[in-house]
Protein 1
Amino acid sequence: MPLFYTQNINETTRLAIWHITETEDFFRKIYIPITEISHPHKRLQHLAGRFLLQLLDSKFPVNKIHLDGRRPFLPDNSRYFSISHCGDYAAAILSKDTPVGIDVELVTPKLQLLEKKFLTEQEQKLIKGNDSSTSLKRLTSCWSAKESMFKWYILGNVDFRKDMIITSYTENGDKAGKITAIFGKELNTNCDIEYRFFDDLCLAWLCREKPYH
Ligand SMILES: CC(C)(COP(=O)(O)OP(=O)(O)OC[C@H]1O[C@@H](n2cnc3c(N)ncnc32)[C@H](O)[C@@H]1OP(=O)(O)O)[C@@H](O)C(=O)NCCC(=O)NCCS
């Protein structure tokens, strides 16, 4: 039962990461996917995400999840939640009252190829570390932060370079920290995203009211 990490964000919001070492049968005890996913590892990640929701809240109705494209939601909006997976890890965040977004990523130099597509020159300068490994970790946490904002917003149509601008990057030691960003077409919504590293795994999450009703 490799529950890898849990954190209480506040009284109504919790997150967890699962290290996937089980076979599908383990996860299928609580949930059968609405549409079958053909790739075996993607299917396993998907099942692990749903499993985590029930771990965070034993009453979570995983079998009532609907999909809007790939975005999962509960038709009665009784809970806010977000899911992410990467490699052998799945993560979920669940809140009774506040919209949330989560992302997990493994640190990989491949992300450098995308850097200019999701960060402005000013953002690139802001996060530049004194060596390449610091820079790569910072880059990963910024990507993860923007992915978590994208999921939190849910409405899509978000340009990662124009509609989300990182304004500060704070490190609390070398394993965790906070990223602040302005979000939206008018860049008038302030967002605080937290991140944490577990060796090469980066977790980022956001818990904030929506900028619209
Ligand atoms: C939706 C998106 C964020 C998913 O990311 P991903 O890399 O596939 O993988 P993750 O594991 O982190 O997240 C997958 C989970 O996100 C959730 N999800 C999927 N689409 C979503 C959406 N539109 N909104 C919120 N959550 C979504 C699902 O729970 C999914 O897991 P599941 O299918 O098992 O339920 C990503 O595909 C995307 O569209 N990103 C923005 C695109 C973009 O503009 N990128 C360019 C930047 S340069």
Note: The pocket of coenzyme A is lined by residues 46, 49, 69-72, 83-85, 103, 114, 117-118, 147, 150-151, 154, 156, 160 (CB under 6 Å).
Protein 2
Amino acid sequence: MSGDVHVRFCESLRGRFPRATRHPVVTFSNSWDDTIISGYADPKVYVVQTATKVIQRCLLMATDPGDLVLDPTCGSGTTAYVAEQWGRRWITIDTSRVSLALARARIMGARYPYYLLADSLEGQQKEAEITRTLPSTQPTNGNIRHGFVYERVPHITLKSIANNAEIDVIWDRFQEKLEPLREQLNQSLGKNWQEWDIPREADAKWPDATKKLHSDWWEQRIARQKEIDASIAAKAEHEYLYDKPYEDKKKVRVAGPFTVESLSPHRVLTVGADDELIDSVAEAKEGFGQERDFVQMILENLKTAGVQQAHKEDKINFTALTPWPGDLICAEGRFEDAGGEKRAAIFIGPEFGTVSRPDLVAAAREAGDAGFDVLIACAFNYDAHSSEFDKLGRIPVLKARMNADLHMADDLKNTGKGNLFVIFGEPDIDILNVEGGQIQVKVNGVDVFHPNTGEVRSDGAEGIACWFIDTDYNEESFFVRHAYFLGANDPYKALKTTLKAEINEDAWATLNSDTSRPFDKSKTGRIAVKVINHLGDEVMKVFRV
Ligand SMILES: C[S@@+](CC[C@H](N)C(=O)[O-])C[C@H]1O[C@@H](n2cnc3c(N)ncnc32)[C@H](O)[C@@H]1O
């Protein structure tokens, strides 16, 4: 693109110029230096957050209310936040869970003005008031696609004034008040002033009664001019200010319902030069070149960071981590528990791809054969079926999820501080049959491996931040049909504070629960339950019902 972007879009500059010199709008050029200031005005939650004013201007230029806006690099969700404010639908995507968590919190806690819809009774009334006409009698449906009622700037021409019959009506109405005042003023001063002879200021020597007549006359004279100006503006052709809809100050808006979806991790198979399938897990074990560098880098981080669990005291700290020449097992880790030293077999998943259940079974078998006490798998993603697999014979299988930051490990300081390897235990879930053939889901907690005793015990539900059910899971994408929030602190506090309003306690109680509302059995024969902990890690379990 080159040259000037010509934009038929104007922004109101009301209040920025004194009335005499004021031109109420400017046409934008392609240099938007006025957006810089507002960037600092936005509270910054993300290091690369875009200023709302920039996105707002693009959005208002390029879309209409009801349109769908896509931002594939969500960040802190500025596009979605602005789209929500201006009645546009939106989809936003990011690879970072941090960014999605920030965007989710930002939109959930947002408070927006309520703009008058053109397709509403209030909107029709406002439109009539602005154009000084009778309100429309069209039935209204609240359809946002008809837009809002916007402020506008008139294009005043001599023609529009000449054609405005209302001016004469206003003039005649005011003459009835102005003329008697002028006559009385002339009488008291012994003058024969025409309207244009009457001075703006009264003479200090005039009697009080004369001063009063003079000020009354001017009051009416100014009121007449104002009304004529308003009539000229209302009847002239005009341009809408799409960034200035009229607000209903008595109403406050919050974001409409939205869902946060994550792709189910799918195993990725790559095709080689001769169309042969390349299994990334099998490739990894060959230990050459880049793959080996990746495994090496992961092991270095694992040694420093250890493996985190829901509770700090359950963290696994390695006293030693040494390479192991296995097929799938690539290292041996040693850690202490109450019974003395334990040997863990370490399995590292692929740099790009998902670990599946058969990979885990093979690694656990290898660990058992080599006399290890436990298998610790480290991977970016596990497929849905591997979540059910937590033990092979005497070997517990611990699935640590690697933080996506490890993709950028070269730029990462290896301080051992980040949550780089986190085990999220199996959620302990009961499916309850209720009357009428419906079912309920109850989450009892999450299984946690206690390295001190080597046991796996179910933890209470307090380790769960929120959980969702797809009551009709199609095995492809998880659709949040039920959502529950278990946070120890009131998770809706931020929203309550922003809204400055109380939330219906009964409605809240149904959401703040470890037991779902009853629902009909799934048509697909499957339901999926997704559980998210306070670190933002999630695990999904699928059940046949
Ligand atoms: C400059 S930030 C966007 C900032 C955003 N406009 C805001 O106001 O916060 C770019 C975002 O794109 C994300 N990203 C980078 N590569 C991506 C990809 N391939 N797919 C989706 N998101 C990606 C990054 O995680 C980052 O959050």
Note: Residues 46, 48-50, 72-73, 75-76, 78, 93-96, 99 surround S-adenosylmethionine (CB under 6 Å).
